[in-house]
Amino acid sequence: MKPGYVRRFSPVERLLHWVNAAGFFFLLVTGLILYLPSLSMLVSRRQTIQGIHFWGGVGWLAALAGVLLLGGRRLLATARELDSFDGDDLRWLRGRGAPQGRFNAGQKINAVLTAAFTILFGVSGLLLWFGEEDTRYRFASTVILHDGVMYVSLALLVGHLYLALIHPATRHALRGMTLGSVSADWAARHHAKWRPE
Amino acid sequence: MDSPPTPEQEPRRYGRRLFLATVAGGVSSLYWGKAAWDHVTGVISPVANAVAPILPTGGWRIYTISGHMPEFDPATWRLKIGGLVEKPLSLTYDELRALPHVQQVSTFHCVTGWTVENVHWGGVRLDDVLGPARPQASGRALRFVSMEVPYVDYLTVPQASLRDVMLAYEMDGKPLAREHGAPVRLVIPEMYGYKNVKWLQAIDVVPEAVNGYWEDLGYDRNAWVGRSNGYGT
């Protein structure tokens, strides 16, 4: 590691992030073709796209499960970090500056919601797929759930991309998710309670 | 930082609670989501109606079954009326539009759960199209044939005689767009979208209603909104 830099994300954490990101974008693109009339017109082959979207989703969930198994205890430790909110986290959320650990409270919420939405995408997607052939799996609200989670995820994603790519104070964090390390100065300013190994 | 944590500093496991609450809320919404959404759209519909034209979808999703969406060419397109009729007909687009024009506002329900409210349809009643062909008494059903092969669907004569069944060549004040079934589609608001055959090219009077395209794949032949396909039954 370069001097003056500290490791923020382990290889398996980064793998989990990028597998999730790749799957999400693939499903977003194929899903929008199914969703937006103008794109449906352009591409037309709905049955094929629907199959690609479905099997892409299955592949995405399987790949995520594979990374979770690979990460094992290391990712369990990460999950514990994301699970735990202390007094400073709650103060930070109320907009009063408070020192943060390796994840700030907003990042914890984003990660937790992203994980929950993955489950909901999976459940509603499977129901949409099997509901086409069997009324036992058909609910009037499945499509509302699938679309609703998509809209909320998209809003989270826009905020996430803004903070990771554009906002000058935070965009240094992208380096942590690509190369794994961030500058020690930046870490001290943004994650004062974090003690890098 | 080195002092023992005060109770207020004790970390709490809010992460898993948020996770479980989100998953539970989402899964349970399978039971209340549509009712809640209908309520919300009812409250905000004045706003939603104003915003709808600039939303990318207007609520519609476009379903096709083949690789190529049919294209309408006024020069070659004909609506053929055949089967058990005394006088088979072949109508051009202009001839169809010369028939008595009717309009209606109705709600479109897809069997997968989405709904588009207050669709303004313009077109003709089935009777005005079929009447001149003089259907025979033995014809107890109609077959609607789409240009999107092999899409067909059937209605019994009583179903086709419902007051607001029509052949629509206009939607929301404009000629029916390609993705909505140009030049003309069947509209039967009482039934789910798959009965509302798009890209019509022929209507045949037949002895009885049999399975159409989606019915062969397990959907109900009598696709009453809210009373078929596993809903309300």
The class by helix and strand makeup of chain B works out as: alpha+beta
Query: How many beta-strand elements of chain B?
Result: 10
Secondary-structure element pattern of chain B, one letter each = HEEHEEHEEHEEEE
Number of helices of chain B: 4
End-to-end gap of chain B: 62 Å
What characteristic shape of chain B results from the CA principal axes? elongated
Number of helices, where a helix is a run of at least 4 consecutive DSSP H or I residues of chain A: 8
> What is the distance, rounded to the nearest whole angstrom, between the alpha carbons of the first and last residues of chain A?
12 Å
In a few lines, what is going on in this structure?
The complex is a heterodimer of chains A (197) and B (233). Chain A is mainly α and 197 residues long. Chain A is built from 8 helices and 2 strands.
